[in-house]
């Protein structure tokens, strides 16, 4: 494996920096278990430098004409597209995701976010409110320095999805990647400088949860946007509340995918595969509870298993590989535990379920049938390649069961009956729904959760509301009346 050791553990004020007093962070290639880079977690001095430089850069950035800010974001988008091959390889090494996925889903998705918000930057204006003589105008202002905290499944995409709207609104960002995938955001930070952004506008601070926690409560941080698990979300939300900071929380899910009797079966199976095995199942919006109408379940299972058997597991850097390893050995153990619990609770394992021999943190694509609503594998987020099939008889029943979860990130359904599709979607408790598709998240559409899956929305114009605030200015055109 070629060296992917960065020139420093953090990227602050336009340059790589390090402080070897920080606790070690080992970057492990999940396909072999070999260490490919070693970094040091941020010390208080690193955190201080990052926030201070972001605070300086934010003032300079916010003073630019919005179109000039957009131009910088656009250049970053172009650089991401130009360097896609190199960045995708790094993403595959950082996460273990197959190169055939990373080439189309990571730097490219980040580029789309930057391109979208580059265009939007110059359109962000206030409004004039006539009052019959007097009037009010509003100014859309940045919040200041925003803190982004990332998960390990999409390190480039998460950093770009957070930075693009934040920066378009005139904020600066300090980004803390997951300690498991610290490499990709550093590259994004380099590209911001290459594109002409002021030093400090997008700083990357690597470290564990405590480094992020110390920034959440820093008085100079105006907003916190986290992608991660529900327990971390609860902690970060509570800590941010102390200073009444703005928050966006993109958390976990246990989303339903409902296959009605009249569905196009092959399309529904393709969606179930994408909704469970893409990125080795490590996607928050995955449709892991697959509800199939009882009249078609046997045909559905036969074809699903037949197709899933052909999945090619292997080296993520091999273009033929379709399924990579789990992110870490700990995550693999956690998923294998869920597979064991599923069997113990009476679900029928019909495909996979094992960790193949050899190096790396692989798990076979796994399918359970005869899963019931109260089973652990139907209630908890597994975050691995484990698909559960549940059956249903009628629409009202499946809607109630689909909603019977603490989560509400996403939901999907397959039917040819469009009246039913819209009727069901209207009742589903989920932030994002798909009709006859699954897991497509274009930047043009809002993305986020309801219930325990989150607060706020990423992407689209909706994210602007979460990275800016409105000042209302009353203008009097006449004399001031007073009682005495
Ligand atoms: O997430 P964490 P982890 C789920 C998935 C997985 C589990 C754990 O089920 O098995 O979460 O993954 C930082 N204050 N998801 O450990 O712990 C942490 O350093 C501030 C779902 O990666 O939530 C990391 O950068 N920050 C998810 C980030 O929070 C803290 C995607 C997320 O860490 C902190 C990934 C604290 N007190 C995992 N503690 C999804 N749904 O998208 C930790 N962090």
From TrEMBL:
Q: Where do the Aldehyde dehydrogenase domain residues begin and end?
A: 17-473
- The catalytic site is made up of 250
Q: Which GO terms describe its molecular function?
A: betaine-aldehyde dehydrogenase (NAD+) activity; metal ion binding
E.C. designation(s):
1.2.1.8
Q: Name one GO biological process term.
A: glycine betaine biosynthetic process from choline
Q: What broad class of enzyme is this? A: oxidoreductase
Judging by the UniProt lineage, the source's domain of life is Bacteria
Q: What keywords does the record list, in alphabetical order?
A: Metal-binding, NAD, Oxidation, Oxidoreductase, Potassium
PANTHER family named among the record's database cross-references: ALDEHYDE DEHYDROGENASE-RELATED
User: Which family, according to UniProt?
Assistant: Belongs to the aldehyde dehydrogenase family.
The record ties this protein, via NCBIfam families, to:
BADH, PRK13252.1
Q: What is this protein called?
A: Betaine-aldehyde dehydrogenase
User: Which organism does this record belong to?
Assistant: Pseudooceanicola marinus
What gene is behind this protein? betB
